[in-house]
Write a structure and sequence with these properties.
Layout (H helix, E strand, L loop, with lengths): L5 H22 L5 H5 L1 H11 L15 E4 L5 H11 L38 H16 L5 E6 L6 H12 L5 E7 L2 E2 L2 E2 H4 L5 H7 L3 E6 L3 H13 L5 E6 L22 H11 L2
Parallel strand pairs: 1-2, 2-3, 3-7, 6-7
Antiparallel strand pairs: 4-5
Helix pairs in contact: 1-3, 1-4, 1-10, 3-4, 3-9, 5-6
Length: 274
């Protein structure tokens, strides 16, 4: 698939947000806030960065891998996969239904294009590190990308994973920290202060970059730098806004896992398609 221009990526991210809104409204369940905050990151990865993806062959051996470690934000993943043709877009209307291929957390056994099941925070980035290590051992050229929430960094397994990735010099591994500063019960600093995420990853032996996670040019530049950096994994700390794209959802904790009413849905959709 040809790479998209920056303008096309922004338009795709807007469409992805609209699909997320439609999904969560229809289901009356799901996570809008953290899906919206990751929209530009996941869109850029799938439509510009990742290589050897094939919707007709989702398990292609040398494909790049993506792991949404903050699995509750799966609507953004599902929206991207449907745009790419991994499954019919009509499935988006079945989010979180018992018989649906699109569950409330990603399920690799149900959904084409999902590289590993996630949901228990911290486990996804660990699986991504294993995938990157396998890629190094087999020399198949794959790169592996994982998106974590900043609240997810409260999990100890993240730091065990960070040590392992540095030990094995996994320069084919990139973590994005979706730093929207909000968790289900409060701000990240209120729940468990992280202090400097950048300093933490640097101390664990990582290459570290900081960007505006809604600026696609900065995302592309950071990904280029990560590809060129050798001998260490890369962590891209992406400063984002929870609920980005809909004014009354932005930086509001209640939109972590809230479904919109009809009035809220119509107002949000009017902003997104304006």
């Amino acid at each position: 698939m040809p790479k998209k221009s920056v303008a096309e990526l922004y338009e795709l991210a807007r469409n992805i947000r609209t699909d997320i809104l439609d999904m969560v409204y229809k289901a009356q369940s799901g996570h809008i806030g953290g899906s919206f905050s990751a929209a530009e990151i996941v869109t850029t990865l799938y439509f510009s960065e990742m290589k050897n993806l094939d919707p007709m062959d989702p398990r292609k051996e040398n494909r790049d891998r993506f792991v949404l470690s903050k699995g509750h934000a799966c609507p953004v993943w599902y929206a991207c996969l449907s745009q790419l043709g991994y499954f019919d877009k009509e499935h988006l209307n079945t989010l979180r239904q018992i018989s649906s291929i699109l569950q409330g957390h990603p399920d690799m056994k149900s959904t084409p294009g999902i590289d590993t099941t996630t949901g228990s925070l911290g486990h996804g980035c660990a699986a991504a590190t294993g995938m990157a290590l396998e890629g190094k051992m087999t020399n198949d050229g794959r790169r592996v990308y994982s998106v974590l929430g900043d609240g997810e960094l409260n999990e100890g397994v993240v730091w065990e994973t960070a040590m392992a990735a540095a030990k094995y010099e996994l320069d084919n591994l990139v973590f994005f920290v979706d730093k929207n500063n909000l968790q289900m019960d409060g701000t990240s600093d209120q729940i468990m202060p992280l202090f400097s995420i950048e300093d933490k990853f640097k101390s664990f032996g990582w290459n570290v970059l900081t960007i505006d996670g809604h600026d696609i040019e900065q995302i592309l530049d950071a990904l280029k730098s990560a590809r060129e950096f050798k001998g260490k994994p890369t962590c891209i700390v992406a400063n984002t806004v929870k609920g980005k794209g809909v004014s009354f959802m932005e930086d509001v904790r209640n939109w972590h896992g809230k479904a919109p009413s009809t009035e809220e849905y119509e107002a949000a959709r009017a902003e997104l398609v304006a």
